[in-house]
Protein 1
Amino acid sequence: MKSLMRMLLLGLVLMVRPALAVEPVTADVCVYGGTSAGVMAAVAAARAGCDVVLIEPGRHLGGMSVEGLGGSDIDNHGPFRNSPAVGGLALEFYRRMADHYHRREAFDQMLARGGKSPQLWRFEPHVAEAVFDAMVKDAGIRVFRNSRLAETDGVDMDPATHQIIRIRCENEKVIAAKVFIDATYEGDLIHFAGVSTFIGREPNDRYGETKNGIRGVNTYRQFTVRVDPYVVPGAPDSGLIPTIQDEPLGEPGAGDHRIQAYCFRMCLTRKPDNRIPFKKPEGYDPNQYEIYVRYLAAGGKLWTPYEKLPNGKTDLGSWHDLSANLYGMNHDYPGGDYATRARILREHLTFTQGLCWFLANDPRVPESLRKTWSQWGVCRDEFTDNGGWPRLFYVREARRMVSDYVITEHHTQRENQTPVTDPVAVAFWPPDTHHVRRIVRDGAAYNEGFVFGGDDWAPFGISYRALVPRPAECRNLITPTCLSSTHVAYGAIRLEWTFMALGHAAGDAAALAVDRSESVQQIDYDQLKQKLLAQGQVLSVKQSR
């Protein structure tokens, strides 16, 4: 019996040994998430002399900047339009883009005179990916793609020092580093490291805000026509048509689990030599689009594609009363496991593909609108590994870290704005949070949750303290994408160029922590500030009426 037990134990040891014997990849800085912020963080740290590893769960670098969002809003709003906010590595990215399109002279002239020239900032997805790849290659960064953090035991922590020792990916790759940066949109690394996070809308009374939580009245991007929400019009007992949730409004100002809607930023074209016509997706159900039929019948005007990017392409987003935003259908995504997220992504893609087919072909759609949509299709030269469709949808918001410093609505306000003593980048956009759900109110379809702008917003500096966790939770982790912010304030931060700027700051901060053998909370802010300013980073803007 003892001999048998020894053999069994030996067998177990041999089974476990390969996993334990995996030689870790070592680096000074490990960036998890190849988003635009992740690329800039990696480049900044590498240029500062660090040995950097960039881990990307998928196949492509650049995040939403290479998944269709080629027309991000940039320092062009209201009385601040002549105050430049884009600098550092973010500006280098856009300058490289200008070089590609042979518009560098016009681009530099625009910067010199100020003002708004949106076309000079825009780009095609595959061009953005080439620029990100070139920046990473030029910096000598080791990149590991298709390396997703393991859902179980993916992070090894030292409980004595509150530091990450190593991370482990599903493909058994192990990475050990001195400092880690979570540059994902979802905040998986900060979550698995045990850092406090929040998903949803905080109640207004938590931070003394007025625009957070359940919205008592929503007029922005509200339905322009009355749409009956019931399967049998006028009959509540018949149930609700698709895309409408059966739930009460709730108490205005109260917090909840809801997040702003996701969508795909569709890159479309009507150039015949580059157009792939819309196809009916597998599982297509025309009943899913009943709300569009009723909206059109009531006199509503649906959005249509238009050329926005170079070479006759669109960056077709969704922010309208009725478009491709699936309000209320993504709440399980941020905290869901990988299988749940894949299902939600697939559901959104199928719905969006079906919507394009519906608008171009369904006889219930007015002929003029069908004719317009049928001229368009996805691009042959974009997303070539996914049939012309983006691989990722627009995760406008997921987990947000909760640290000792929280950015709130008060930072975004023009009057009595919360001062920031340690800015590392600038947020140059009003609070912009899309609707979180579609419900029934007063017997009609009703969108709830949108907050946008107003006359009381102003740009603000983004505090370094909002990028780092509480020291008792983790001392060698920074996040430029899931920073400590409330739902409504995050809506002013979540722009791609802002993420690039925050990634730049995170990379430089990580390099300082490595160089000084300090925690990320201990680094000297003045040193970081001077380093960022020397590299052209913008840390403040002034109102220019």
Protein 2
Amino acid sequence: MSTRKKKTIFSLLIKYKYSFLAGLLALSVVDVCQLSIPLVIERVINTLTLEKPRVSDITRFGLYMVGIAITMAVFRFFWRFFIMGAARRIEQSLRDEFFEHLQSLHFDFFSKRKVGDLMAHTVNDIETLKFACGLGVLIAYDGVFLLIFIFAAMLYISPELALYAFIPFPILAVIVYKFGRMIEKRFQRVQDSFSILTESARESISGIKVVKAYVREDSEIKDFSASSSDYLDKNLNLIKIWGVYQPVITFMAGSATAIFIWMGGIKTISLDINVGQFAAALVYLAMLTWPMMAMGWAVDIIKRGTASLNRINEVLMVEPKSIYEPGTVELDIQGDIELRNLSYSYNGIRALNNVSMQIPVGQALGVTGATGSGKSTLFQLLTRIVEPPEHSMFIDSVDVREINRDSLRDGVIYVPQETTVFSGTVMDNISFMNPEVTEQEVQEAAKVAELYDEIMAFPGGFDAVVGERGLSLSGGQRQRLALARAVLLKPKVLVLDDVFSSLDLRTESLVLRNLRKEMDGRTLLAISSRVPSISGFDRIAVFEKGNLVEIGSHEELMKKEGIYSGLYKIQTYE
């Protein structure tokens, strides 16, 4: 059960309470000025109905209106600055917190959530919350404030007329409540559909090379169109609610005006109130249309924000992996690795079965086997990408689970099969994990990966921009770029997960020769489906269905004429 506390719109607002209070105070001044206008109009009309109205009085009332206008203009600036500024700060802090939280979550979380969905949370949902905390709060407060004071002013002019005019309001309250719940539910469906649409676009664009290669453009267009149509349908369902909601509120406002004109006209004719009072009350009633509309609009905006916040809370409530690991030790890793009866299962399916192995410091170990034999799982457990069982994996005689993650990451570098290239220059990508390295060190790492000459042939050399996800690079170039990035860190243990799959045999041979020289005295572990690639390693381990079935040098395994020997002969046509 999560120990994290769910966020609410109120909890977001309270963080910047002073800014909101200052903004609402400025808004109150504007509203008071606005509410005083009908009283001035009443005085003007009553003055004009006198037998001998004085020009000086009319001039004075005109100056009052100018003063009111100036005051409203000044304080409008302040409420915008404080309220909208606070909403922007909420947006920034929540987006930063959300992104930071994503960085703290375990790998398992990202294997279950789509990138497009998380992008929609980070951008669209937080943008909606900004409106709820800014415009929503502003409109709600403005509507309530004006409603209370207009009602009070009308009570002052004529209590009976005020009560008649407010007959529709109990019905309005029920309508706002009912429609508010429907808006929240339907907007959450809109946001969920937007996440699917974002993911559809992301998948297609990021895999554009595959789409083009297999001439799948029409299929991708069809799939995206389906997601886009679903998003449109969800929005139209929301628009239907809004389309009924606003006219109903407008009708209620019109009903209040109709009641007032009818009853107020009778009272004016019967001289229960004078013409000035009738005009002032009518202006107040005209003002009443905005608060009624504002309340409906505010409920819509705030309910949308609540729906978005519910989606964000789903992610924020996921417990992160603490960066503080009590009981773990900092270790200057040397690279002696031991596996003791290591077993591991995914969702009840055994991936590794009682694997025991000793890998001394400085050894180059190649690992091969069929797809799904447990090779990648082995090294993901070693680097704690996946948490290993207790007392099954040891580095320098220390249980991997007891080694501080920072120490483990410093000593053991894992290069996955799926390489990641970031937008930016070649230099930025190679130095990604250590921006303080020198240009000379970056160049040396590129030479180890047999990438230096190719980089220098790029326009701009190491300053060449590789483009989004490295689409301007070949698969082999991306793999070697990731390898150079890892080599630059000079790890005590380097783990390569089939990173030579896109290289030709000559380039692969050169890279492996450079790696063996670079990692001399340090531990090198490499998974490869191409057996000849690792035939020159000190030892080769062969896996089958989660079991370690063969281990030894190339010569030893060839003499056994087992799985390794068969694979080698097939792949070298012997």
